[in-house]
Amino acid sequence: MATTFDDLSPRAALAEIARDFHARGWMPGTAGNLSARADDAHFWITASGKPKGRLEESDFLLIRVADGQVVERAAGGNKPSAETAIHRVVYARLNEARAVLHGHSVDGCLVSECAARAAKALRLPAIEMLKGFDLWQQKPKVDLPLFENFLDVAKIAAEIDKRFRKKAPALSALMVRGHGATVWGTGLQQAYNRFECLEFILGYMARQRGR
Question: Domains in the chain, start-ordered, CATH in brackets?
Fold first, then answer.
């Protein structure tokens, strides 16, 4: 019996994570997308338009990191998620990233929309849950990279690539304003744990501002 998501095949783990996230309100309907490296040059990602609470192992495509081309379709008719470009940037710029998880939560939208229009980051509160990102300083000052939302997802990906090319983020996560968080890790279990920790932090921030 698998004890962590890393004990499962990538597609089986991603399908299970999708059902978990859907049940928790982080992937309503067909929103959000999840991926995991198949090897150094390729990654599996959820197909577009699939209900995240009912994903199967056939609901994925194999994408080449170098150019974004579809290498394999687990089922005919599968189309890449529009946000494949964002996953590609993370894999291309951050060699340690082995899994990338993107969801749409109410707390994420609330907190990011409250940020100043010119803000490039969200300062996270120095609470215990930051340790989930291996931040062990006393009262650390940590910023979550914030990007503007565009209908053209390729434009979002280009902005992420431009910023990460200059400097890798201190946190293995980013936020798109009014859209949702993207979190990555050295494995599926770490990415899952960190996404859960970030959602706790975003929930704390949303409630703190609503006092």
Answer: 5-209 (3.40.225.10)
